[in-house]
Amino acid sequence: METNVKAAIVHDALPFFGGAERTLGAMLEVLPNAPVYTLIHNPAALQGTALEAADIHSTWLQSLPRIRNNHYRFFPLFPSALKSIRLPEVDLIVASSYALAHWIPKSPAQRLLVYCHTPLRYLWSQRQVFMARLPAPLRPLASAFLKMLRRKDRQAALRASAYTANSAWVADQIRRYYGIRATVIHPPVDTDRFAPGAREDFFLCLTRLAPHKRVELVVQAFNELGLPLVIAGDGPEGKKLRRLAGKQITFLGHVSDREAGDLLARAKGMVHMAAEDFGIAMVEAQAAGCPVIAFRGGANLETIVEGKTGVYADEQSQEGLVRAVQNFLNQNEPFRPDDIRTHALRFSKDKFLEKFRTAVLRCVSS
Question: Please, what are the averages of pLDDT over each run of 10 residues along the chain (366 residues)?
Fold first, then answer.
């Protein structure tokens, strides 16, 4: 599936290994000789992953203290750090972008293919949430700063030779924010890692414990329901969530891929309340035959078939999730693990590799 295109890949940051990083690993199967350039790099977090042996180059941001814990604190420095990157002489630059990777400087002769995980939330879809977290005296200055960055972000996007998006949901945002029509290439889900197992009496929340994942709603709802819940994952919200949780909620912290597959094979259902740009973990759950209870929003609508592979919560709230869990438990027809897995195969890694390779070849030949 690899190509001979002379390319380099720019990925925003590598402080941990998540869905965007799994996608990056698959990109390297198509472009195995491509070096990867990134703002920061945490080798320890990539051990045992597809990126462990990759040729990765970071910027001067790498030397700043505690940047790996929360690199977005240093967001105002991102543009200047990107400008400091010196790419080799390549024909194609692939920007794996959820922030500013598509801002990477390029020569007029170089082609730029953007794979957009999401337009930067702080600038676009969640800018009001970002502003609300700032002290009131800083908001006028921050508003002007973000307005300037949105203008530059749009200009940077328009430099691209081709745009791809990880979901129709993100493609619609790209159209609205940048005026660009993007081709949808769903991220790679390694469906072969998963298989249905014997279901047990617990629900599973498998996600990074970050504010936008809305795990506090899951904890609050299961406190009210009194049902057993296992939370797998770590992140900045971990301590707060543990204080909030009742005795029937178990926290496992970070789990390996093997452990995640085992949990998904056994869980009664997976619970997820974020409006995802794609949501690889929810498709992984379905690959293991595990039905999903998810918020009815974002790209969740592209990956879950209501009544067949899961149910939706109509409101992103504690009450909305409680009702959704009750609907899940009261389903007239049982969920069929084999049918759920068959649906997940639509998002297999092989399909990503084929479509991404086509996008690469089309970009360099156009």
Answer: 88 92 96 97 92 96 85 87 95 97 95 97 82 84 90 97 97 97 96 94 95 95 98 94 97 94 97 94 96 96 96 97 97 92 95 97 94
Backbone angles phi, psi at 10, to 5 degrees: -115, 120
In order of 79, 84, 95, the CA distances from 60 in angstroms are 12, 8, 19
pTM of the model: 0.89
Query: CB neighbours of 228 closer than 8 A, spacing ≥ 6?
Result: 201, 202, 203, 248, 249, 250
Q: How far apart are CA 337 and CA 198, in angstroms?
A: 10
Q: What's the confidence (pLDDT) of residue 1?
A: 63
* Long-range Cβ contacts of 95-99 (<8 Å, 24+ apart): 95/9, 95/10, 95/160, 96/9, 96/10, 96/11, 96/12, 96/20, 96/23, 96/24, 96/27, 97/10, 97/12, 98/12, 98/20, 98/277, 99/12, 99/13, 99/75
- The single-letter code of the amino acid at 2 is E
Give the span between the Cα atoms of 131 and 335, in whole angstroms.
Answer: 42
Residue 61 and residue 74 in contact, taking contact as beta carbons nearer than 8 Å: yes
Q: Residue 202 to residues 260, 271, 280, 345: CA-CA distances in angstroms? A: 14, 11, 21, 25
In terms of Cα–Cα distance, which of 174, 146, 185 is closest to 348? Answer: 185
Query: Alpha-carbon distance 310 to 304, whole Å?
Result: 6
Beta bridge partners of 97: 116
